[in-house]
Amino acid sequence: MVDEEKTVKKAAKKTAVKKAATKKAAAKKAVAKKAVAKKAAPKVETAVVAEKAAPKAAAKKEVAPKADSGVKMLSVTLIRSKHHRLAAHKACVAGLGLRRMHQTVQVIDTPENRGMINRVHYMLNVEEA
pTM of the predicted model, to two decimals? Predict the structure, then answer.
């Protein structure tokens, strides 16, 4: 008899705990929905502001520097094949804009471009333009 009462009480406790957990979960979902609704409204306003600012931003385009503008340019020629090379070396050659052998491109003399050139120097012919 006593064992039966204990099992009944344990079962009652388990169901009470489950009900409490589901109530908490439902409350959290409701709070989350409210938070999402509040956050969604400012995003709409920022989208409207972004649309107004977009035409101004579109008018400003970056123009590639010309050779006579005082910016140092490098003339880079691929003189060795990029086949059977390391993936990082192939990526550097592609980053410099070289696609095939004996192709020459003009690149700006920046530390980034110099680093790529230094990595694959054995495949390139570099001249200051």
Answer: 0.48
The C-alpha angle 110, 112, 115, rounded to 5 degrees, equals 110
Q: What angle do CA 9, 15, 17 make, to 5 degrees?
A: 100
**What is residue 102's three-state secondary structure?**
coil
- Pinpoint the alpha helices (H) of the chain: 2-59, 87-95, 111-119
- Using CA atoms, how far residue 66 sits from 16, 59, 107, 118, in Å, is 77, 20, 11, 24
* Amino acid 110: pLDDT: 96
Q: How confident is the model at residue 89 (pLDDT cuts 50, 70, 90)?
A: very high
**Joined tokens for residue 97:** 């804009």
Ranges of each domain in the chain: 1-61, 67-128
What CATH number has the domain spanning 67-128?
3.30.1390.20
Size of the chain, expressed as the number of residues it contains: 129
DSSP structure class, residue 100: S
Are the CB atoms for 128 and 71 separated by under 8 Å?
A: no
